């Protein structure tokens, strides 16, 4: 005999709500939920209360239990009865990934009800159709959850999809692959180009914020892709709230001087170690983010000052000697193709800009993202830095990857800078 009887006009929405309520009750430690699960799930018939309480259940488990309570073999059969449709649901890789790509939440759930193993299915390329299954051990493959993690910024509202996949058993710590990030878990992909809510869902579902990737940590990734003045909560604060731990690079990037000291006290050679992703030393990471107190402390501890770091710090004394020894360093580039002039312009180091331009630095130098020295000087709000670059022949057009002009990027309230750009545009120097 079924434990429960359907009303004359059952609502599928209400049945789904019942399953969600049962799942939440189990997670809250409800004794009633434990009893109901024992009665409706055969594998739990002889389990103790503690064993059931400690068993991880997903939404599809709760739906199965609800279906059994109403006398159906599985949720799909109950759903078909209520909707008056056939219980046959097209499944397979094609149907599943089409539903995932379309962000069709109901369809994804319908398919996973019938073929739950698809939640673990890997494919080599989620953007290519037809989708070819990848070997479970293929390091350059992804599940649907990896797709949801990294696509959050391109397609709105993927957090609900991520939650559904997790509820159906997706492994939040499974390693995926991205051409930019290398072999990486979902939390790194979400910290990179996923949205805040996708990252939150992953962390609240138990994703390890410190799970290593081949190139960088989730925290490093989030710091790189979060504005320095971003309001809380943001990806960085969210990761820290869930237990992300700083290494010497992220500590330097965020200006955690005392922590940098502690880490170097434990292992001094870290001072010259280079980050896996950018190939920067802690000092170079600190100056890149304008963490001057941390940078000075690293110098005090003996950090080697590269020409990019010297430019960022305004150390014309060091730069003069470096250029005298090797003028080739004038256009030296790091992993992101930053030159000394770009670093000086970013931080408004007027004396350094003058020195570099006098030595023959290219005023139109740009980094790997097509951001020019003029663009950096405008962002620094240094009118003098902008004037020096314009006088040296810096172009006012196409100064970033979006093809923006200098005039388009100047803040409306910055009258002197606007006047300066207009004057050079007219040729009135």
The gist of it:
The chain has 429 residues and is mostly helical.
Describe the structure.
The chain is mainly α and 429 residues long. The protein has helices at 12-27, 31-40, 49-53, 59-69, 75-83, 92-101, 105-114, 144-151, 159-167, 186-193, 196-204, 218-224, 235-241, 248-253, 257-266, 282-288, 292-300, 307-313, 316-325, 340-346, 350-358, 373-380, 383-391, 406-409, 415-426; strands at residues 175-178, 182-185. The protein folds into 3 domains: 12-83, no CATH class; 92-245, Serine Threonine Protein Phosphatase 5, Tetratricopeptide repeat (Alpha Horseshoe), CATH 1.25.40.20; 332-429, Alpha Horseshoe (Serine Threonine Protein Phosphatase 5, Tetratricopeptide repeat), CATH 1.25.40. Helices cover 51% and strands 2% of the residues. Strands 1-2 form a two-stranded antiparallel sheet. Helix 15 runs parallel beside helix 17 (292-300). 43% of the residues are buried.
């Amino acid at each position: 005999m079924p434990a429960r009887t359907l009303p004359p006009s059952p609502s599928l929405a209400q049945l789904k709500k019942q399953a969600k309520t049962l799942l939440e009750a189990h997670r809250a430690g409800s004794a009633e939920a434990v009893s109901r699960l024992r009665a409706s799930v055969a594998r739990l018939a002889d389990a103790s209360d503690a064993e059931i309480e400690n068993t991880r259940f997903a939404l599809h488990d709760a739906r199965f239990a609800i279906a059994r309570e109403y006398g159906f073999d599985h949720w799909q059969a109950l759903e078909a009865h209520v909707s008056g449709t056939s219980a046959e649901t097209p499944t397979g890789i094609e149907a599943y990934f089409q539903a995932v790509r379309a962000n069709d939440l109901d369809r994804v759930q319908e398919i996973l009800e019938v073929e739950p193993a698809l939640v673990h299915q890997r494919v080599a390329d989620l953007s290519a159709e037809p989708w070819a299954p990848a070997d479970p051990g293929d390091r350059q493959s992804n599940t649907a959850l990896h797709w949801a993690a990294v696509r959050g910024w391109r397609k709105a509202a993927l957090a609900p999809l991520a939650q559904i996949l997790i509820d159906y058993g997706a492994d939040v710590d499974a390693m995926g692959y991205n051409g930019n990030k290398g072999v990486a878990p979902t939390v790194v992909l979400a910290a990179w180009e996923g949205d805040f809510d996708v990252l939150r869902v992953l962390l609240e579902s138990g994703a390890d914020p410190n799970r290593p990737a081949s190139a960088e940590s989730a925290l490093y990734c989030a710091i790189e892709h979060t504005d320095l003045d971003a309001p809380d909560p943001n990806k960085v604060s969210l990761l820290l709230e869930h237990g992300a731990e700083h290494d010497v690079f992220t500590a330097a990037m965020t200006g955690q001087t005392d922590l940098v000291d502690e880490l170097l006290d434990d292992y001094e050679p870290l001072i010259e170690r280079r980050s896996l992703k950018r190939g920067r030393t802690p000092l170079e990471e600190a100056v890149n983010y304008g963490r001057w107190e941390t940078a000075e402390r690293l110098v005090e501890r003996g950090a080697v000052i590269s020409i990019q770091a010297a430019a960022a710090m305004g150390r014309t004394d060091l730069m003069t000697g470096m250029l005298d020894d090797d003028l080739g360093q004038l256009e030296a580039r790091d992993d992101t193709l930053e030159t000394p002039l770009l670093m000086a312009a970013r931080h408004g180091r007027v004396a350094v800009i003058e020195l570099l331009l006098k030595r023959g630095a290219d005023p139109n130098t740009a980094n790997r993202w097509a951001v020019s020295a003029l663009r950096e000087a405008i962002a620094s709000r240094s009118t003098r830095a902008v004037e020096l670059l314009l006088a040296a022949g810096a172009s006012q057009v196409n100064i970033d990857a979006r093809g923006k002009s200098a005039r388009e990027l100047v803040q409306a309230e910055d009258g002197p800078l606007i006047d300066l750009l207009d004057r050079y545009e007219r040729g009135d120097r």
